[in-house]
Amino acid sequence: MRYIAALPCAGLLIGCAAGLVVDRVPFTAGSLSLVTGGVLAWCAWRIANERVLAVVVVAVFVVGGALLANDAWQRAWRPPLRIAFESLARDQRADAARDGRRLPEDDEAFAIVEGVLRADASPAEGGVSLSVDVDTLVACPSCPAIGGIAVTVVGTIAPRQMDAWRAGRRVRLPVQLRRPSRYLDPGVPDNERALARRGTTLVGTVKSGALVEVTARASRVQEAIAAARAFSRSAIADAVGRWSPQSAAIVAAIVIGDRAGLDADVQRRLQEAGTYHVIAISGGNIAILAGLLVGAFRLAGHLGRTAMIASIAALVAYASFVGNGASVDRATLMAVVHFGARAFDHRAPPLNALAVVAALLVAADPLAVVDPAFVLTFGATLAILVVVPVVTRDAKSAEKAKTAKSATSNAFSAAFAVLAAFAPSMLAASVAAEALLFPIGALVFSRITFAGLALNFLAIPLMAVAQIAGMAVVPTAVVSRAAASLLGAAAHAGAAGLVRSADLVSLAPVLAYRVAPPSWVAVAGYYAAAAAWWTLWRRRVDIAGSRETPRARRARCGAAAIAAAAALWILVDPRAIAASRGDGRLHVTVADVGQGDAIFTVFPAGSTMLVDAGGIAGSASFDIGDRVVAPVIRAAGHRRLDVLALTHGDPDHVGGAPSILREFRPREVWEGIPVPRSAPLTRLRLAARAQSARWANVYAGDRVTIDGVEVIARHPRGAQWERQKVRNDDSIVLELRWRDLSVVLTGDAGVAAEREMLPSFASARLRVVKIGHHGSLTSSAPDFVRALRPQIAIASAGRNNHFGHPVPEVLDRYRSVGAEIFRTDQDGAVIVDSDGYSINVRTFTGRGLSRR
Hints:
- 53% of the residues lie in helices and 15% in strands.
- The chain is built from 31 helices and 25 strands.
């Protein structure tokens, strides 16, 4: 069999994926299956039955992969550190209860830990980020406490201490530990599980850099590598940064894998353009270095075993230098297998080498099978290896002839001919990779981009320029700062060109857009039909001189039609067409955005309104609008907003609004009392006007009917004086009235505002109230609660908030009038559906309630 390595690899990949889906794979049954499979495989080999042998080998690797992945996930999700943390949190919660203190809903625990830094310290929002492999809890040295944590060291001292916190050094630090943030909403990935798969089980905060103690240095090799990385950062910052700090950050990301300095807007633009892979999937720099090494040895006339072994050593050293990230490890292993095979003159097909690398990586880390970067890397490589040789096979002789003819002409013509010879291969590679990966991109990233097909012709050469010049900057800086600056200019040109190329999406937005994650049926149908079409097409091409039968042609055309229909399903999403027409019911979703507000409403005929967009996720790089609120809207099948209502300008209400404006292009944006000095609101106003959205100030008494539902503003009254800052009591309060139903959305309005607007509320047989100010004592006065007398009360609050929201006294007030309480910190997203005469409530965690 030509591609024999693909069988165990496929079995291992399928088994690992299955092992992560199943909660618990029985170890005894799995072990017996492996033994039985081994016996059957030996018997099939003895009787030379290749088909049975292949089936048994795949089955054995499926079972083995399932056992490996299931065990790896159990260890990643509940490592010893997680268990020790939960015990500490229980003890500290009990102490707080005895003292009458209120702790956040999520577990927290203070601990002094010791461990080894996994990477060099990097700048973070408000401090410095550390990644630590913990092995000791100082309070209990004998307790097993192994696990990874991500820590933010805050304060002004931390940035000055960064250079001392290098990979491999042992540190001791007092940390306030907690579970990672997670948002329980439809369409939103589980961030906590994603971090656990990457080896981080907890996150935490250290109050000052002065509290982080380096107790032991790393090994001499690690210290030397860390010093070289520090010098490289400094050299790149000096040589490239003098031309552009942004370019310096991009070059540092490409050359040494340090993406800490990348601007969030630049990352977003490259992601939309489909070219972020050149710096995010940093295997590209390994590929370029491998090509440079081969080219150098070829020029020197030495391409034998010694050259291959030397190349392997150089690549392994470079991988260690840039930090051994997962993507770098994958690319390095690919190159090592390739050079190793060449060193021993082993002429295996490239697909076998790819299968061996994939199997080795998954065997070492079974959780990698669901790592998007792993899937994208191997998917793109598979597409290129399968498609490009076939597509370009017939054109090779013509390309060679053109190149030879051009060699007798002038140098410009020769260079053009060489470029023209490579263009079909690059185009075929881009098309193959995009065709294979676009369902995965839609499923994992909710993004489809066609810009990469064209931009890869620019992005890859520009990335090569930035890397080669950037790599040359480092040794040159030792000799001559002026020469390093000239190389820095070349690196800047490559990096700046890479960013500028992403402007294509701004000029033609249709080339990149967001979609809701497609159904597995559509994805499976696409791949099955595409594989069938490719097989039939290959058979037609490979059997030279034969004539395709009508039956085979119909099968091939049918497979192509099914693949095209599945692709169209993913691109258009029929759910969006149905959602735009509405279903005759009112849907109100109070999203879980942590300590903030975001309420998405779908009216009976499909019109939409978003009230606030959340914010303050703890990091500027985490865009809560893009990462949390937008997926909720997409999951409901909508791609456009009719109204975005901003109750007031606090960050936890408008922080996610810029990305919502950018993606969903609301037709109207509502603001209450204007605050001219509020920079966030000013930026939003300018962005809305740039999109031709109507910006309106809404005051008490304003009303509009949307799909038969009356939307009434109950607050605020018109301002008598100019506001200098945002105030909670200026919040827009909206009431949605439809038939017997009233839904009151209170923003952060306080007791004074409640007293002012209370007379304007009429009675309603069914009422839902979003509890004011996240359940704070500053809102929900007893008179207000008794007057509204809701059946459903919903509190939007964060699990790890230290304000005590929602406070028990407020919840008791609502319970005293018969309201059922729902909380986003406990229930996740709360979805209220109504026909105007009844209410159905369901939550992300599974709670449900009906009222008539």
